[in-house]
Known about the structure:
This protein has helices spanning 29-55, 95-101, 129-149, 216-232, and strands at residues 13-18, 23-28, 60-63, 66-69, 76-78, 81-83, 88-90, 156-158, 163-168, 171-176, 186-191, 206-209.
Amino acid sequence: MSNVCQVSDTEARRRYTREQKGIEMTMEQPTLDQTRRSLHGIAELVLAGPQYAACQSIRLRVTPGGFGTVSTPDLRIDGVELVTPSTRIPLSGTFADLARAADVEARPLRDVYEVGPDVTDRDAIAVDPDAVAIILAAFSRGDAAMRTFAPDQEPVIWPEHFDIGISVDEVNYGVSPGDGHLGEPYAYIGPWSPRKGEFWTTPFGAARPLTELSDVDALAAFFHEGAKRAAGDPVAKAH
């Protein structure tokens, strides 16, 4: 990757699917939540924050084995390691420690958006390898499905909500690794103007857990169905 700033155009027990190996495993919800929180913190403080300081871009993208920056600095997550042009660093210590090891300064983005990861640079990183695999698989599957659904679009991982998405004809399509709406990875469709009809099951549009969308083709089909419904269903009246 060039060093020039150039943005590219990604307490109950539950059962999740680890896509890479095609197996099921049991994952404690708190473990998944904690790992997601740490990866979200890394996405903002160690990747997007320093990139914004250098290039005024907060966009991130899916990369082999994880996700990374689109410009300077050249950093990416690969499993449970942070990869720089010269070394691989375990995801451990505080967020500030990890940033220093990568020769960048941890930077929050509250001056860019209001919400984000509920962490500071002094907080400790805590990741479980199996939970990391689940989250990164969700981003990878989402990226592939969006490229299948809309080949002319470039999926973006946004550090604000830590999801990957695109917008087509005033409808957002994306995948979240989990949040306050649903604690597990899920796909979503959000028309800019809410629609009404049986397909639209959430206040923001429609959502399906990835456990109900078995592969890239199923996820792309969900997006196609959402596009069809968004085009045909009436706009919901504002309350």
